[in-house]
Design goal:
9 strands
Amino acid sequence: MNNDIIKLKEIIKNSNNIVFLGGAGVSTESGLKDFKGENGLYKQKYDKQAEYYLSVKCFYENPQDFYNFYKTNMNSLNIEPNITHYYLTKLEQKGKLKAIVTQNIDGLHQKAGSKNVLEVHGTIYKNHCVKCGKEYSADFVFNTKGIPLCKCGGIIKPNVVLYGEMLSEEYSLASSYIFKAETLIVAGTSLTVEPTCSLVKLFNGKNMVIINKDSTQYDNLATLVIHDSLKNVISELFDDI
């Protein structure tokens, strides 16, 4: 066991107010693609940029293109949580982890049993008609052929934050948790997407830990930086709780 893992174990052992801030890299071990990684969605070849297909502009102007992309790449209904999700659930049950702040919309933290999950980019599991507001399930959206429509004729929109939209109302709550945290563990994110990446600047506690395969622009602010896969790191921690 290397010194970084030993130090991380010690930080977690001595912390009773931990907040976890995670990105797409948390879910890649479950088989979902990230965005900016080597094989990420932004590296694939499409007629237009991936950012366009996930924009509010595309949703309203070309809903067929939006849903073709969305259903192909955002469907996590049959995806299972991985070791990181289950570890965080155990950490929460122990009373050490106070909140999970996630940029992911896949719902895997909840599938693993975590309770206090703040989804700052929304979730695939909530959907509503843009015309009458009626709510629909993710199963309905993903299993509808073509554009999912409400009984009133309106287009159903996922409650996810698209490019060009404001962040969810949970962002301010996430900010509060991070500001008050004793330990902030940032993992599986390149910390390049604003304004979520700026949440790390709000941290006012004792230890910030960054776990990511590649370096980030905030590594210099961290108490501990581990450049490795989450699976490798968490497997060293899992049985300690």
